[in-house]
Amino acid sequence: MTFLAALLVVTAATPPPPPPLAELSTPRFVIRYTQQAEGMARVLSRDVESMRDDVASLLGRDWPGVTEIRLGTGREQYEALALPGGPPPEWAIALAYPGRNVVLLEANSLLGPDGRKTLKHELVHVALGQFATGWPRWFQEGLAMELTGERQWRMEQFATMTTAVTSGRLYDFRQLEAGFPASAHGAEVAYAQSAAFVEFLRQRNGRGAFLRLIDRMAQGDNFEKAFGVAFYVPISIEEAAFFRELPRRYPWWTVLLSSSALWAAMSVLLVVGYFRRRREVRALRARQAALEVKYELSKALLLRPVMNDDAELDGLAGGATNPLPQRPWLVTSVTEK
After folding, report:
1. What is the C-alpha separation between 232 and 240, in angstroms, rounded?
2. Nearest-CA neighbor of 187 among 271, 281, 114, 88?
3. Which tops the pLDDT comparison, 53 or 84?
4. Mean pLDDT of the chain
5. Distance from C-alpha of 213 to C-alpha of 201, rounded to nearest angstrom
6. Fewer CB atoms inside 10 A, N or C side of the chain?
7. How confident is the model at residue 325 (pLDDT cuts 50, 70, 90)?
8. Could you give the C-alpha distances from 325 to 78, 301, 303, 304, 317, in angstroms and in order?
9. Is a pLDDT exceeding 70 seen at residue 261?
10. Domain spanning 15-131 has what CATH number?
11. Taking the domains of the chain in order of start, what are their residue ranges?
12. What pLDDT sits at residue 171?
């Protein structure tokens, strides 16, 4: 390898240095932000404590320590502020480092209608990581979505689950323990499946089971043992019940009600309706033309000039060879013998 080639390899492998950061502090947070994200950092510093209170209330306890929030504007700054270990996934606008008590945010994401929910979602991850280690990834994501009420994409999640159930492309939960697929589509299915399973568990067991699970994990139990104690059944039993119920919860025909399928069906119906209407108009015009012809014929027959009766009598007196006049209504005659 030439020196230039080696230099290019080293340069390409070296990540760009992180931008300089300023800092704002609250009782339980430190917000480190780039110059471009200063405005959002100041807004966040006024709201973040109450957001933590909300999450702590949902979990039944607060987590220890001061949480760091890293805030950058734009994808480049967002990725530059990531902790060592690799860049965030391309589809992610927020990232939690639970063991480090750190949250990474793209500042513009806070401006959206779901900005607060996104941050609360990451705070749930941080809280679980501070309570204990060994949480399966599917449980972390499912619980975060359940607790923060992330149902703004409910229809999208329903369509994703219905398609996955119909096509048989669901994941075994053991595949989702350490992490989620890197592809956007695979991650979408994993998120939807995790949220559906945690919702299923809550409906069957109530909120108290989750609080007991957190307690057991904080005491040092592994997840499988803590789950069995908290939910009174092995997790394998609940997984089997969940998969059995999926066809009923997500029937195949509901795929037709998804937005894309619905619009496609509406487009087809519009085209069919257009051609049907055009045929009906043509048939109506043909009937109108036939009626007009019949009307003109009838009018011509009815308005035909009639001979004067006196003239007819004169003809009879004069011995005319054709004494009976032709009347339009005397077309045929019927006689009985």
Report:
1. 15
2. 88
3. 53
4. 81
5. 12
6. C
7. very low
8. 106, 15, 16, 13, 14
9. no
10. 3.30.2010.30
11. 15-131, 133-256, 258-288
12. 94
